[in-house]
Design brief:
12% strand; five-stranded mixed sheet; alpha/beta
């Protein structure tokens, strides 16, 4: 009887766990829809920002003196992985950190010193556990990042680059493909490539015209470049947030499915144990009856 009761307790425990995983799956699905809507709403802004930069750059006499466009010998590179604040999201955090460590090894092999900045509690705790020196960490917004969160990160990396404390910034994050697939991307955010300001043929035709700029185009472009960095960081944060919710939804769905299979297996074992107990009790009653008649 003890075996049957133990199995019943396990079944109740697994059922309670399945309720939690199903609830987390539904919450992640709702957050994923909102994250996808934010990405779609942000794309026109990012495209318009690039068009505006192309137009101003074409009107500028020179862009060589702008700090965020200056390219120099790379001696120090900032690595910025975007991770989550919570776990239970499958390989979401692990694959970002795995790529970050791979980038670090390549940099060290090239003689470049890496410096660590990180977004997300999971990334910060992993780096500190491995005794890496984390110069700055941001947390508390991985589920639903706001633009001011991107501004804080962008201002910091732009300041480090402008002060020549770092020579390059690489942001590593999960690019959202679908709820089932996320692709790890290592994007060089700084320095801003001058080729970006040239634009394609379609944009070039659209931006032809006689414009009067006030103040000078160089001053406008100097103000636009930090905003562009903020936009790129914000886009990466949104992609990472959508990827996290997609990974969590998939992980919780798999957990619920595994819990259901475990419940079926335990129920079968419980029925077999109960049948064995009933058979044993019948044998004992028959044996007792035989003893009384003899």
């Amino acid at each position: 009887m003890a075996a049957v009761q133990d199995i019943k307790r396990r079944i109740r425990s697994v059922r309670n766990t399945r309720k939690i995983t199903r609830a987390m799956e539904l919450v992640a699905a709702a957050k994923l829809r909102r994250a996808q809507a934010r990405i779609e709403a942000m794309r026109p802004y990012a495209e318009r920002m690039q068009e505006l930069m192309v137009g101003v750059a074409r009107a500028s006499s020179s862009v060589r003196g702008l700090p965020l466009l200056q390219r120099r010998d790379v001696r120090t590179t900032a690595i910025l992985p975007l991770t989550g604040d919570r776990g239970l999201a499958g390989a979401f955090n692990a694959q970002v950190l795995r790529e970050a460590f791979s980038v670090e090894r390549r940099l060290r092999a090239e003689g470049v010193e890496p410096r660590w900045l990180v977004a997300g509690k999971k990334g910060a705790s992993t780096l500190r556990f491995r005794r890496y020196q984390v110069e700055e960490a941001w947390a508390g917004f991985s589920d639903s990042p706001a633009y001011h969160d991107a501004q804080a990160i962008a201002h910091r990396i732009s300041h480090l680059y402008a002060e020549q404390e770092i020579d390059r910034v690489v942001v590593i994050y999960n690019h959202f493909e679908s709820a089932l697939a996320q692709r790890v991307v290592a994007q060089e955010v700084l320095p801003i490539p001058e080729s970006l300001l040239e634009g394609d043929d379609e944009h070039s035709q659209a931006l032809l015209g006689d414009f009067i700029y006030e103040p000078e185009p160089e001053q406008i472009l100097e103000r636009l470049l930090p905003v562009y960095v903020e936009t790129e960081v914000y886009r990466a944060l949104l992609e990472s947030a959508a990827s996290e919710q997609g990974a969590r939804m998939t992980a919780m769905r798999n957990a619920s499915k595994n819990a259901g299979e475990l419940i079926d297996d335990l129920t079968l074992r419980m029925n077999r144990a109960r049948q064995a107990e009933i058979t044993q009790e019948i044998l004992e009653v028959v044996a007792g009856a035989d003893a009384l008649t003899t």
